[in-house]
Amino acid sequence: MSASYTVSATRHSEVAPIEVSSGDVQRHRLSRAGDRQLNYALHVMAMAQIKRATPGRDYYQRKRASGKTHKEAMRCLKRRLADIVYRTMIHDTETSLQPTP
Description:
Helix content: 55-70%
Radius of gyration: 16 Å
Strand content: 5-15%
Shape: globular
Number of strands: 2
Largest sheet: 2 strands, antiparallel
Order of helices and strands: HEEHHH
Structural class: mainly alpha
Oligomer: single chain
């Protein structure tokens, strides 16, 4: 799996940040050009991760402790979840294409 495919997948799911910096202020926002249903599914997954004692919650809390806002930490968590979903889909595709004994 190459990095370009994961970047493309995160852009498609609208969780890839777009830089909107001005002067000394550096900000990022989410792309609005992508699959809204996939973005919604990632949002629901992220909220479920935050509400329960999961590795996702730990990741979110680490991001918040490092100084990120709620939106920034959510963006990071959704990006991480998108990467996990993408890797799972690729793995499932590769294993389903293998001949059975």
